[in-house]
Amino acid sequence: MRKKFSAIILSLILILSFTVTALASDMDYVTDEAGILDTSERNKLNDKAKELSLKYNCGVYIIVLQDYLSYLDNPTGAVIKDTAEKFYFDKPMGIGKDQSGIMLMLSMSDRDYILYAHGYGNTAFTDYGKDYLADMFLGELGKDNWYKGFDIYLNTCNKMLKASHMGNPIDVNNKPVSLYVRLWGIAACIVLGFIAAFIVKSILLDQHKSVAKKREANQYIADGGLELTDRYDRFTHKTQSRVYDPPQKNNSSGGSGRSGGTTVDSRGSSSKSGKF
Questions:
Q1: Which contiguous run of DSSP H or E holds residue 91?
Q2: Of residues 243 and 210, which shows the higher confidence score?
């Protein structure tokens, strides 16, 4: 009887797991109610967002609305976060029991945007990380380059989720360095190396420019021969072994006047909003 009961419980768990996966696979990850994307663009973005979501078990969404206030029962004094929260939990959105995800919502009427994260999304997209993510795509959205801006958003989400899964989410103490900066750093090191080598070579050549090879050995002996006037032993150095004892690392967050991590609200979500 106990074995039969355990088998039933296991079957229910498996069915629930497959159901959640199926729902995550079938849902729309890109919603464009304002019609700023054509069908081909929306499908490409949706496929890319779906691939990322299933790969990292963290939903990645794009929601475009005409006016976020029209989705609220009482819009007086409301902000775009109220609509984002309603969408996220009423749909519902996110993957797994924690509803892990990151959502970019646009409201076209007043050009408002919000990045809304929940569950594992809070870990992968820290407060600093959301600033970094927004900086990557806002320039294109500000020029109405919708598809390009959304594509950059998805590519950056992929980069940030990958970093988080490797145990190093992008944050104050783990800021990404662009390829442009890295190439400039390498080039600067090479140039400085050549300059240093040239200076050293020039100094050595200048010090030895009057030296010429003698033809006979006795030409290296001063007039009057070699005479030793003093003989003594002089202590020059001693060998001493040391064991390096590295200092303990400071694990506290900090830097640039801002602490790292994620500010989470009472519903277990975090967000960043502004204009595009």
A1: none
A2: 210
